[in-house]
Each structure stands twice: as structure tokens, then as C-alpha cells.
Amino acid sequence: MAVLHAWRAARVTPLGELHTPPRMTAVLLRLTVQIVLVASLWHGLYTDTGTTAGLDRDQAVTYAVLAVLASRMRELDQYAGRDTVLQHMHFGTIVYWYLRPLPPQRYHALRALGEKLYGFAWALAGYTVCLTAGVVEPPKSAATAGVFVLSLLLGQLVLYYVLLVLDQMCFWTVRNNAAMLILIFAQNLLSGVYAPLWFFPGWFVTLSAFLPFQATLNVPLSLYIGRIPLSDAGLQLAVQAAWVVALHLFTRFLWRRAALRVMSQGG
Predict the structure, then answer these.
(1) Are 42 and 103 in contact (CB under 8 A)?
(2) Residue 267 — pLDDT band, cuts 50, 70, 90?
(3) Which helix (DSSP H) or strand (DSSP E) does residue 184 occupy?
(4) Which residues pair with 56 in a beta bridge?
(5) pTM, whole model, 2 decimals?
(6) CA distance 110 to 220
(7) Coil, strand or helix at 51
(8) How many helices (H) and strands (E) in the chain?
């Protein structure tokens, strides 16, 4: 029975996507356009230069395209299914999370797992096409590929907990759309979604080193393209693991506090 509950929770958002073919077509079109535009942009930026910020053209293009593909692992439409914490807090339905057989924290984690696996299928398919077409470079070695996969897994765990903290904010602010948009923008900027952190000023890179955001994406992609050498991989993986543990403990504390603040708003 527990396995059945877990399976039903994990497939909530992916089912919403799979049962809406026009939405999947739109995702494919948007992903294709993003990859083409990003690759064209970085090719153009490197027209008159060889190496910038320690990256050559192929490394920069590979990083940018992989960042687009990685972002697909979290861009599922939860709003269509009205299953975001923000919506539940607004309509007063968050109370049902505490009446289900699954604890709310486990339901949230299982649902996120299903979304990640579905998004990973999209990212893997896009990566295979881009690698075959020569848009992105393959990893330098098997060791690099292995370290990248491990770092990407840790990065996704860090990202899950960062986004979970944003969701948990709703228990204290109820309506925090603007704050969530600002924090999501900051997360994208500081994690290297918009551009590799190596292109930013030194003070910006130093500041980001004290925050968990770069551990979500910049570290795994920098390991993949070789901007972070394998000799430094152990330290980077340790930092990522430390953020996972710290954020796990912090969100567990917030879940306990949030349970004391559950209330019904609106409907």
C-alpha cells in the first residue's frame, strides 16, 4: 500500500503533462528554440575571441546548452494541476496534505521525485540529440562523466531543498508571489543558468561561494566542461553534500514549525 501511495504521488505532475499533448508540443518547441538561440548567441560572442574567463567557444556553448537542458528538469507546470503550495495556501486546501496517508513532507518529496524523473527524460533526450548533432562536446573522460553525474545528482538535491524552502515560506507569508519570483531569479542568476559564473566579477563569484545556488548547476556543468579540474572534484562534491545535509536539517525544522501554522484561507 505504501508503494502504491508513493507511485500515485510521484506521477501527479507528469500525468498532467502526458495527458495534454499540446503542452508537450509547446515544451518541445520552446526547448528547441532555446537551444538554437543559446548556441547561436555563444557562437556569436566568440567570433572574435579565443578564450574568455577560462572558457573557449566549445566549452561555453556546451555549458549554455546543458544549462538549458538541465533547467527542463524543474520547469513542469504545477499550476495547471493546482498542486503548488502557494495555491493550496491561498484556497485553504493545504489542510488536506495533513489528512492524507502520506505525511506532507513525504508527499512533497515524492511528487518532486516524479517531476525530476520526467524532466530528466526530456533532458536526456535533448542531450542525446545535441551530442549526436555536435552541438555539445562529450565529457573528456569516463572519470569526468562519472563525477559529473554524481555532482548533478547532488546539485538536484540542493535545488530541491532550495525550492522547498521557497514553498515553506508560504506557511508564513500566505501570498508571496513577488518574493518567490525574486528568489527564483536570484537562484537562476547565482546558479549559472543565465551565464557561467566565471564571466562575473570576482566579488560576485566570491559571494556566490557562500550560498547554495552555484552547487545546483554551476558546479556540475563546470566539472563536465573541464573548467573545474578533476583534482578539485572531491572538494566540490564535499561542499555540495554539506549543503544537502544542512538544507535537509533546516527544511525538517521548517516542516515541524509549518504544521503549527496550518489554516484555511478562502475556499
Answers:
(1) no
(2) very low
(3) helix 177-191
(4) 51
(5) 0.87
(6) 24
(7) strand
(8) 11, 2
